[in-house]
């Protein structure tokens, strides 16, 4: 029994070897540092980006801890539905779509985690959670921003291939929806895999059941994909309403 | 007989999920959330304490609540709640806090108790016979419910709940009694990057603002005729429904306002130089030393409790 009940178990049967976890996070961190240096990192955010990120963090906290958590209790506990998580997914995607710079995803999740600590957890799981959440969920969003060259969900992209404007808009929308779906899919992975197969036994000494993990992985995907698509559509609308 | 069992089971199900929500929407409302997440100036003891000390106190409370037996967590919750009386409008804040704590206790108890397996309960309550208090209809297993609800499962849920409430009550004290600028200074002192601190502070200020804006948006929907002529009993549901509808407008409103905030920060020379210059220095006063004493006391309490066998008896496995 360690501090805050952290067991530190790294030899539970079926648990992902800690070397792999460390390698992933080190690799992710190196990638972030490398990319951050290349693009200017924290300095490249303008003040308004920082305000967007702060608002996004606050919204995620309000949704996940106060509104979504109560709504979620009305539904039976099933891995297919996760009201609190979906809300955060949509909010983070919207903020990423407004900022559209590499680092936006990670930074939003970092701020969300710190705000969650200030308002709810009291720094209970730190620094574990902000490393884990930023470098999984946040990183996936940032990779998508990098891949799309800063035109997440097709925002701000000019298509001039000779086709009419309506066709171009439709193509952008379809591309945006596909990006949302892919991002939603990636968001379904960390919780069942990293959390159930490493952090949960590491922190609380729980046992690992891969059948359960694979089931959860499959169960998380449809909902997260649908929410990713919804988020991409909402993000485009909000970006337009905010005047980008 | 089975009809009665079904009715009672569903009543218990809706009690677990519905009662905390009902309590929140009827007593605290969005306005109450705004009040217990926002700084208001005051002269009480906690207002004079350095924010770093308050974070330290929160950490100590968390450490003690999670390493000792549940009733120490319950006593800590009570003690911290009483501190709310020293805040501005203390009684009202205490009422809001109590409702939030009670509903959080009920909901965390009911989100754990029906699902916890007997094998975990045997770890938590060794050498005890599990006392069944209710047998669910078999189809409740679809929701992941265990076949029987035992007394120990309820206690297990309650014990986890008390750990959460102690931390929640102490975490909110920091945001209730510290000005945003002081939180900013605290993070600057802790050498956090300026951009991070800024975003965080925008967040701290935005949380109560979101409740305020949601509240106005909900009220506007009612003024425009939502729920006219409907029976009062559906009002809580309408409130929830209107709160969901209020989300996107609130978000757009806040994000549009972001520009003003960014411009006002930029005109004040934000990030013009890599470090901030300080006019007000955050220092430690005698109130801080009192809290340091409390923190040391809490740590000693945790050690003594563990030595006397009142250590953490609940293996929290995150059901």
Automatic annotation (TrEMBL), chain A:
Alphabetized, the UniProt keywords read:
Membrane, Transmembrane, Transmembrane helix
Q: Which residues cross the membrane?
A: 16-36, 48-68, 80-99, 106-123, 135-155, 167-190, 210-236
What is the protein name stated in its UniProt record?
Uncharacterized protein
Q: Which organism is it from?
A: Metallosphaera prunae
UniProtKB/TrEMBL annotation, chain B:
The membrane topology noted for this protein in its Swiss-Prot or TrEMBL record is: Multi-pass membrane protein
CDD domains xrefs: EcfT
Q: Does the keyword Protease apply?
A: no
| Main localization, broad class | membrane
Subcellular location(s) per record: Membrane
> What Pfam families does the annotation carry?
CbiQ
Q: Which InterPro entries match?
A: ABC/ECF_trnsptr_transmembrane
GO CC, sorted alphabetically, is: plasma membrane
Q: Which UniProt keywords apply?
A: Membrane, Transmembrane, Transmembrane helix
* Keyword Transport set for record: no
Membrane-spanning intervals of the chain: 7-28, 55-87, 94-113, 153-178, 233-255, 289-310
This one is known as Energy-coupling factor transporter transmembrane protein EcfT
Organism taxonomic ancestry: Archaea, Thermoproteota, Thermoprotei, Sulfolobales, Sulfolobaceae
């Amino acid at each position: 029994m360690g501090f805050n009940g952290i067991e530190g178990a790294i030899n539970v049967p079926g648990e992902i070897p800690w070397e792999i976890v460390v390698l992933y996070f080190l690799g992710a961190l190196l990638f972030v540092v490398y990319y951050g240096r290349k693009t200017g990192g924290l300095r490249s955010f303008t003040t308004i980006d920082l305000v967007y990120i702060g608002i996004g963090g606050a919204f995620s906290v309000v949704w996940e801890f106060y509104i979504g958590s109560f709504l979620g209790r009305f539904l039976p506990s099933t891995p297919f539905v996760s009201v609190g998580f979906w809300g955060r997914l949509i909010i983070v995607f919207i903020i990423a779509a407004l900022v559209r710079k590499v680092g936006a995803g990670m930074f939003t999740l970092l701020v969300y985690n710190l705000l969650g600590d200030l308002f709810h957890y009291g720094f209970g799981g730190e620094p574990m959670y902000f490393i884990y959440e930023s470098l999984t969920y946040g990183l996936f969003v940032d990779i998508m921003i990098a891949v799309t060259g800063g035109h997440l969900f097709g925002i701000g992209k000019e298509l001039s291939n000779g086709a009419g404007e309506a066709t171009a808009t439709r193509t952008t929308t379809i591309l945006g929806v596909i990006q949302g779906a892919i991002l939603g899919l990636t968001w379904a992975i960390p919780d069942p895999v990293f959390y159930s197969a490493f952090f949960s036994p590491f922190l609380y000494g729980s046992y690992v059941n891969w059948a359960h993990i694979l089931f959860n992985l499959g169960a998380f995907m449809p909902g997260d994909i649908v929410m990713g698509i919804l988020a991409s559509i909402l993000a485009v609308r909000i970006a337009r309403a905010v005047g980008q | 007989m089975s009809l009665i069992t079904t009715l009672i089971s569903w009543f218990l199900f809706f009690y677990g999920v519905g009662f905390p929500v009902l309590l929140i929407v009827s007593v605290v409302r969005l306005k109450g959330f705004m009040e217990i997440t926002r700084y208001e100036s005051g002269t009480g003891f906690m207002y004079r304490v350095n924010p770093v000390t308050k974070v330290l106190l929160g950490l100590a409370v968390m450490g003690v609540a999670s390493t000792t037996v549940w009733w120490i967590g319950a006593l800590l919750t009570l003690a911290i709640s009483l501190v709310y009386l020293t805040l501005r409008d203390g009684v009202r804040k205490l009422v809001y806090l109590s409702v939030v704590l009670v509903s959080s206790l009920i909901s965390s108890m009911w989100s754990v108790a029906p699902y916890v397996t007997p094998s975990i309960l045997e770890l938590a309550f060794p050498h005890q016979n599990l006392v069944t208090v209710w047998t669910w209809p078999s189809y409740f297993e679809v929701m992941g419910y265990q076949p029987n609800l035992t007394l120990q499962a309820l206690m297990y849920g309650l014990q986890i709940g008390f750990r959460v409430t102690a931390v929640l009550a102490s975490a909110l004290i920091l945001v209730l009694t510290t000005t945003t600028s002081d939180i900013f200074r605290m993070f600057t002192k802790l050498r956090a990057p300026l951009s991070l601190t800024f975003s965080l502070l925008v967040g701290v200020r935005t949380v109560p603002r979101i409740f305020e804006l949601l509240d106005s948006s909900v009220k506007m929907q009612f003024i425009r005729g939502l729920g006219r002529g409907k029976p009062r009993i559906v009002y809580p549901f309408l409130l929830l429904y209107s709160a969901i509808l209020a989300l996107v407008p609130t978000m757009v409103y806040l994000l549009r306002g972001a520009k003003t905030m960014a411009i006002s920060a930029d005109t004040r020379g934000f990030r013009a130089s890599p470090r901030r210059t300080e006019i007000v220095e955050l220092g430690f006063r005698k109130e801080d030393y009192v809290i340091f004493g409390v923190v040391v006391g809490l740590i000693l309490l945790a050690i003594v409790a563990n030595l006397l066998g009142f250590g953490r008896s609940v293996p929290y496995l995150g059901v």
